[in-house]
Amino acid sequence: MMDDILKQIKAGEVSGMQFKERILDKYDIACELVAFSNSHGGKLVVGIKDKTGETNALSYSEVQETTNLLSDIASENVVPSILIKIDTVEVEDGNLVVATVKEGLNKPYHDNKGIVWVKNGADKRKVFDNAELAEMMTDCGSFAPDEAGVRDATVNDLDATTIKQFLGNRFERVLEKKGLTGDAFNEASLDMICSAIAKGHDCEKILRNLRFIRPDGTLTVAAMLLFGKYTQRWMPMMTAKCICFAGNSVGSKVFRDKVNDADMEGNLLHQYDTIMDFFTRNLHNVQVGDEFNSMGKLEIPYTSLVEFTVNSLVHRSLNMKAPVRIFIFDNRVEIHSPGALPNGLTIDDIKAGTSMPRNMFLFNNAIYLLPYTGVGSGITRALDEDINVTFMNNDKAQEFVITVWRGESNQVEDLDTRLRHSDTDLDTRLRHSDTDLDTGLRHSDTDLDTKRVTLTNKEKDIVNFCSVPRTTKEILDRIGVSMHSKNRERYITSLVAAGYLQMTNPDNPTASNQKYKKVTTK
Q1: Rounded distance between C-alpha atoms, residue 153 and residue 156, angstroms
Q2: Running DSSP on this structure, what letter comes out for residue 189?
Q3: C-alpha–C-alpha distance, residues 337 and 331, integer Å
Q4: For the stretch 266-296, what's the b/e string if a residue is b when 16 or more beta carbons lie within 10 angstroms of its beta carbon?
Q5: pTM (2 d.p.)
Q6: Do 438 and 455 touch, CB atoms closer than 8 A?
Q7: Among residues 140, 142, 113, 110, which one has the least CA distance to residue 127?
Q8: For the segment 154-176, what is each residue's pLDDT rounded down to a tens digit?
Q9: What is the C-alpha separation between 56 and 253, in angstroms, rounded?
Q10: 183-241 pLDDT per residue, tens
Q11: C-beta neighbour count of 15 within 10 angstroms
């Protein structure tokens, strides 16, 4: 028993206290109990020195006094009160008192001064950050951040096309019975779709019934993440940062590619498409088979990248004010998702397919827009592919990191990559990508794989914006130009001719319901 206690002390799972010096300090004991309750539980051992493990055994009367004191502190000095299990352990010259504290179900707990404590290795620390407090409440189920309200946002801030796509997938059988499939569905208005799903319902009423609109009339965070036109206007950090570095260090001043904030702006479906485009243009294609013309495949299986990307977008902590970060290095790909694993999950748990979604409402609805099954098997499916992947659950930094290692053959750039990404100076690229969106000129070099000219940043924004079908007006409004024929030719028709956009109704180019959608390649 003593050997186990010493091991737990070193691991930070046990805190020790000496009776003669500290037993009367109720406040110190309360802080330890609070810290364990807010973390993953632990043990407080009275009669042993913390960290060193040197014993200071208690007499019978001291054991009785300690037992009564610990019970009183747990009920009176920890808010809300907790139950603890108290045992005694015989040692030479006396006994130790061991108080076992379980992880609390009513986080955050605090002391009588209102201070919240958490374990920090073998020590403890105060918590002042509201995001960390919200994460505790989310972890124990007393707060659902995806169902929280988005102040001042209205239904007009949502994208009708994305809502229509969501409803089409969620109510596929209902709409099929009403004859709204294929072209009939594409040509139907959102209000027609809503009325077909539930007679007399418009979009707002449908969203209210599906709990995307709260009883007080505010939109939920989930609604803004799934359907928002400009999601980052309301939630700036609910985005992703994608950078392809030259070399293997995040401190490198040279990079090959970067997704600008404007290109990433949008809902989760748009973010997903933009991230996958970032992967496909920066990772290599590997030839499969011996024939010269045999099909190639992405060096990291596309299926695995899909699962890891969806996981980072849907299961990220919504309380942490940090973006998803995706880095491509010469030897690896890193996906950093804000928030450590929730609900006490371990890396072994997720490898085995254990699913305890952090954002349950978002998780249950994003399935109708993003490519995942919703049964929690994404990581296991990704691991079924032939990949070398490692996971890191960082409680201190509050992030979960997936690292996929690239093969040795990918350490050296191929000719195509060098031609596409010849501008590798970080400062220059940042200047052009972030502050010179309107004046970027087409480069004369061409993509050897697609035979398409490189786009300006404004054109890239249009293409990414059209991850869901957009009307001419929506596209031109996006970039702030008038509905003039020259603007349509410059910003839309030219992208169709170049193979970046496609018409939703190509047989009738002048159709009043004509929309334009991004051409995707896998």
Answers
A1: 8
A2: -
A3: 20
A4: bbbbbbbbbbbbbbbbbbbeeeeeeeeeeee
A5: 0.65
A6: no
A7: 110
A8: 999 999 999 999 999 999 999 99
A9: 56
A10: 899 999 999 999 999 999 999 999 999 999 999 999 999 999 999 999 999 999 999 99
A11: 28
